Amino acid sequence: MAKTLREYYGEALVRYGKENDKIIVLDADVSGSTRSALFRDAFPDRHLNVGIAEANMTGMAAGLASVGMIPFVNTFAAFVTSCGLLAARTFGSYSKLPIKLVGTYSGMSDAFDGPSHHALDDIAIMRAQPNFEVIVPCDAASTDWAVRHCVETEKPIYLRMSRDVFPNIYPLDESFEIGKGKVVKEGTDVTVFACGLMVGHALTAAELLEKEGISVRVADMFSIKPIDRDLIFRCAAETKAIVTAEEHSVIGGLSSAVSEVLAQEGFPVPMEFVGINDTHGECGPYKELQAKYGFDASAVANKIRRVLDKKEKNGK
Q: Which H/E stretch holds residue 48?
């Protein structure tokens, strides 16, 4: 049975914690939810539950980083990128201390807790912070790599996790590189740049559209910042139509990152964005929220059809 992404994350913390005693894990009284509890059980002397005090927790992590420790800061994405932002901006972005912010329950995955706990702006917030890397895994292999990368990299990093079960895309021994995306399915008519949950949805949409004679390329942009400019240019040149897909606002996230790259180089291609359209969410079953707010496989398929209509008109 598949595990949740947060479960893979907790297991990776334990795995690398055995190898490196400089890893310290902090949590804001939600270790059962973030699954940092797995690390707590394995290394109780290196796990700090600071209570509901996200700003203090991030400041504590900065102090630990300043003396050579590797601190992982854990709480819901909505809170680590809001309550914890001032400390992250001051000590991570400005002072370049290598704190690792881990935002779990991203997007609308904390479905029944509603909009106060949804994180639809966290990518936009963190990619705007100088010196921060932003990583969005989509499965077990990419999550394991992301944790290892955090351990090995002396930079501030924002790692965006989900509470839900995602399909595994990669073999467990897959290699990854920061700043490089991965084409997980080849295609010739359109490219879908996706991250997190939406990689699986994009692959499902591509399979559906094959029956309509549409060839869809899917690229996993797990590295939001730095982003793979070369891959964006290559796909735009080869397929001449782009769709971005993210469980995030269409303002400031992956869609903006891809658009900025193409605009900066004067490389116009028809584009469509899959994501949340400048609104908050609501309480409800997760799959129903995905359908209602337009970030499921059906939404990806519809945006692909729309962008191909644009491409055809541009070609006339």
A: strand 47-49
Q: What angle in degrees, to the nearest 10, is found between the helix axes of 140-152 and 5-19?
A: 40
Sheet architecture: strand order including 23-27 = 47-49, 23-27, 70-76, 100-104, 157-160, 133-135, 223-225
Whether the bond into 130 is cis, omega within 30 of 0: no
Cβ 150 vs Cβ 105: under 8 Å: no
Determine whether 54 is an active site residue.
yes
Do residues 126 and 134 make contact, with C-beta atoms less than 8 angstroms apart? yes
User: Which residue in 197, 257, 267 sits closest to 227, CA to CA?
Assistant: 257
pLDDT surpasses 80 at 252 = yes
Which domains, from first to last, does the chain contain?
A: 5-160 (3.40.50.970), 182-315 (3.40.50.920)
CB-CB contact of 37 with 9 (8 Å): no
The bridge status of strand 133-135 relative to strand 223-225 is antiparallel
Q: What is the pLDDT of residue 1?
A: 52
For 80, 102, 156, 224, 269, the CA distances from 86, given in Å and listed in that order, are 10, 16, 14, 21, 38
In degrees and rounded to multiples of 5, residue 19 shows phi and psi of: -90, -25
Give the CA dihedral 259, 150, 64, 48, nearest 10 degrees. 100
CB 50 within 8 A of CB 63: no
Catalytic residue among 7, 11, 19, 54: 54
Radius of gyration, alpha carbons of the chain: 19
Please give the pLDDT value at position 53: 94
DSSP H stretches of helix in the chain = 5-19, 31-34, 37-42, 54-66, 77-80, 85-87, 122-127, 140-152, 197-210, 229-239, 254-264, 286-292, 297-315
Query: Model-level pTM greater than 0.85?
Result: yes
- The residue-averaged pLDDT of 207-227 equals 97
